[in-house]
Write a structure and sequence with these properties.
Elements: E1 6-13, E2 19-26, H1 30-34, E3 43-47, E4 53-55, E5 73-75, H2 77-84, E6 90-91
Antiparallel strand pairs: 1-2, 1-3, 3-6, 4-5
Length: 101
């Protein structure tokens, strides 16, 4: 891969467009992180614009818990539009985005 500049990347499976996850790392380390979940060669990725996940449930502020709580979430509008767009998705074995900009 290429650039050592960090970034946030949205990763999905190529053939069925199922989301794998969001990763924050240099592009050169993306395949290593994806490999914790699925075969990197089966995936495509896209650099994320400004946006985020919003958790549907209100945060619990008064209970102490050592366990992470990940309720249902949805994407902000900008990420939802980006995810649905088939342009600029890159397979892991292609040149990095740094060469495109």
């Amino acid at each position: 891969m290429g650039s050592e500049d960090g970034g946030a990347w949205f990763v999905r499976v190529i053939h069925n467009k199922v989301a794998v996850g969001v990763f924050a790392c240099p592009e050169s380390q993306l395949a290593t992180l994806i490999d914790e979940a699925v075969e990197p060669a089966a995936c495509e990725y896209k650099k994320l614009p400004i946006g985020g996940f919003i958790f549907r449930d209100e945060p619990v502020l008064h209970e102490a818990s050592g366990e992470p709580h990940f309720p249902d979430a949805y994407l902000t509008e900008s990420w939802d539009i980006m995810y649905a767009d088939d342009g600029l998705w890159r397979r892991l074995n292609t040149p990095p985005f740094a060469n495109d900009e």
